[in-house]
Amino acid sequence: MMFDLFDTPVLPGLAVRPDIIDPAEERMLIRRIDESDLTPFRFQGWTGKRLTTSFGWSYDFEVGRPIKAAPIPDWLAPFRERAAMLAGLAPELLIQALLIRYDPGAGIGWHRDRPVYAHIVGISLGAAATMRFRRRKGESFVRAAMPLEPRAGYHISGPARYDWEHSIAEMEMARWSITFRSFSGSAPR
What we know:
The longest helix has 13 residues, at 23-35. The chain has helices at 23-35, 77-87, 158-162, and strands at 14-17, 39-43, 46-55, 57-60, 65-68, 94-102, 108-111, 117-126, 129-137, 140-148, 153-156, 165-168, 175-183. 15% of the residues lie in helices and 45% in strands. By secondary structure, the chain is of the alpha+beta class. The chain has a seven-stranded antiparallel β-sheet. A four-stranded antiparallel β-sheet has the order 7-12-9-10. The protein has one domain (14-183): Jelly Rolls, CATH 2.60.120. The chain has three helices and 13 strands; from the N terminus they run βαββββαββββββαββ.
C-alpha cells in the first residue's frame, strides 16, 4: 500500500511493491515486449502513440467488448504469479496480459479501465513515471499521484479502481509495462 508520513493510505485500493522483479528480468521483459507484435493503440477511430499487444483477452474499443486473444505465453507465467500474489489472487484469475511500450512523447489519458475488468495489476519497466489519479468533487477534482519506479508492481482495486480515473503523462524516455487484469463478475468467460 502507498502511505503518507502518518501511515495512512494515500488512496484506498492502491498498493505498490518496489522491485517485484530484478534488473536482469527487467531487461529480458523489455526485450520480449519489443519482440512482440506491438501495434499502435486504437480507440474509436483514434490512434495513440503507445504500442500494445494483448494475450488471453483483449478489449476491442471499435466494437466495445472483450475478445479472445492468443494465450498468455509461458515466459509471462512467473510474472503473472508475482502479480497475482501482489493482488492476493489466484494466477488463473488474471485473464489478460497487456504489453505496452511508451516511446518518448507517449502517455495515456485520463480513464477508468472498462467495467468488464476488476483488478488491475501492473509491472513498470524502463523509465520512471508518475501515475496520476483524479476524482470529481463538485466543479473541480481531488488529485493524487503515485510514482511508478522501474521494476515496481502496483495493484489498483476497490475505490482506486472504481471511484478514481488514472493517467500517465507523456514520457520523455522509453517506458514499458505489463498490465494483468481479472474479469469482473459480469464479464464473458
